[in-house]
Structures are given as C-alpha cells and as structure tokens.
Design a protein that fits this description.
Order of helices and strands: HH
Helix content: 55-70%
Mean pLDDT: 74
Structural class: mainly alpha
Number of strands: 0
Shape: elongated
Number of helices: 2
Low-confidence stretches: none
Distance between the termini: 61 Å
Number of domains: 1
C-alpha cells in the first residue's frame, strides 16, 4: 500500500499540471487503495479465525482421544491387576560370592586422560 500512495503522491507533484490527477480521480484512487488494504485485512482476519477454529477442533478431538485412551487404560489396568498382582510383590534374593563392600577412595585409582 505505501508504494501505491507514493505513486499517487508523485503524480500529484508532477511539474506539468495537466498530468496531475483531478480531485475526483484522486478521491477514487485513495478509496480504491483503502478498500484494497481493508479487504486484505478482512481476509487475513477471516483466515486467522478459520485457523483458530481448526486448531480448536483439533485440540478438542485430541482431548477426546486422550480421554478415551485414559479411560481404556484405567479399565485395562483394573482388569489386569488381579492377574499381574504377583509382579508387584517383594522377593528376597540371596547372592553368594560377592566381594566385600569398600569405599571408592580405597584401593588403586586409575585416571585416563583423553585428548
């Protein structure tokens, strides 16, 4: 739009008065420039509005999917709990031939430098 105003200004400043636009032509051109600008803005806003609506629909559908998955997960956990409850019980293991525990500072230390 600024480029259109610049062209119009240059026409108005023409050294030859016969080349300058008449006031009615000037008014019409300014009206067309403004109409074009506002139409572009309206289209942008419509597009933004449509995009926002689509994003909202996508989020709602994702929420519905996640909710249904959570419900299915809970019901499957409940149904499988009795069959898998033995996995959650503690067991005592006996390990043999383990070395005596020692502090990390005891014994030899090996330091390797990398270039």
């Amino acid at each position: 739009t600024p480029l259109e105003y610049k062209k119009l200004m240059e026409q108005c400043w023409n050294a030859d008065p016969t080349e300058r636009p008449k006031i009615n032509d000037l008014e019409d051109k300014i009206y067309e420039i403004r109409k074009s600008y506002y139409q572009k803005e309206i289209n942008k806003n419509k597009n933004k509005s449509m995009i926002k609506k689509l994003i909202k629909k996508i989020r709602l559908s994702e929420l519905e999917i996640n909710t249904s998955l959570e419900i299915n997960d809970v019901s499957s956990i409940k149904s499988n709990y009795t069959s898998t409850s033995r996995l959650f019980t503690s067991k005592v293991y006996q390990f043999t031939n383990l070395p005596e525990p020692r502090n990390a500072t005891e014994g030899t230390v090996c330091i390797i430098f990398y270039k």
